[in-house]
Task: structure prediction
Amino acid sequence: MAIVLPTYNEAPNVDGILRELHGLFPDAALVVVDDNSPDGTAKIVEGLNQTIPGVVLIVRQNERGRGTAGKAGFQKALGLGARVIAEMDADGSHSPGDLPLLVKALDSCDVAVGSRYTSEGGDFRGSWGRRSLSRASILFVRALLGVPVRDPNSGFRAFKREVLEGISLETLKAKGPEIVHEVLMRAYRQGFRIKEVPIRFHDRRAGTSKLTLGQLLKSFLFALYLRLTTIFYRS
Ligand SMILES: Nc1nc2c(ncn2[C@@H]2O[C@H](COP(=O)(O)OP(=O)(O)O)[C@@H](O)[C@H]2O)c(=O)[nH]1
Ligand SMILES: [Mg+2]
Result:
């Protein structure tokens, strides 16, 4: 198993997350993809190599983006031979404790999506504005993508290896966080079985979000683009 964690300025958070993950999955490779964060995230991860042998660090010097970082992590995980590959944020929003359920769900599906909008899951962030923005954006994204999941924005997911091998990672277009939509849509259209698993989504432990309004708008446009490509593809 491999767990992919894209990081940008997660120095205060990354150590705790990696230790928790190692405690839960001692044999897993923990693939951190850092875009040369100015706050020294990579140095901290490097230091952890001593105590957690499964830590694999990729530092990208000249590239920046949640999307391309996630893709690089997936490719590394496949190269390591992992049968199950998970992805999650490294800021504490995603709880390592929710991951065992996601992995277990793969017994009866190919992609397990960690979902806030399930009866036992939830969005526990303090800001009403952020919770509402997520709810609103999801209505829009869900309608465009046409994928029957309640939380298509989720970046907390587990995949069987075959899924990542089957969706042509090298041709993914998304550079930023909108990659979660592109991967989900490709998996769905390839006929892979998708299930949702409850997760409890929290405020990041420390630091600030890298999601900008511009990025949010870009992800709407990108969802629209994804929709158009499917219409074009069908005709
Ligand atoms: N490598 C890399 N990771 C990123 C980048 N932007 C965000 N991330 C990571 O992706 C995860 C989610 O980003 P975050 O800023 O928390 O976005 P939010 O949860 O939507 O507010 C975190 O682990 C970030 O460190 C980036 O440009 N490069
Ligand atoms: Mg976050």
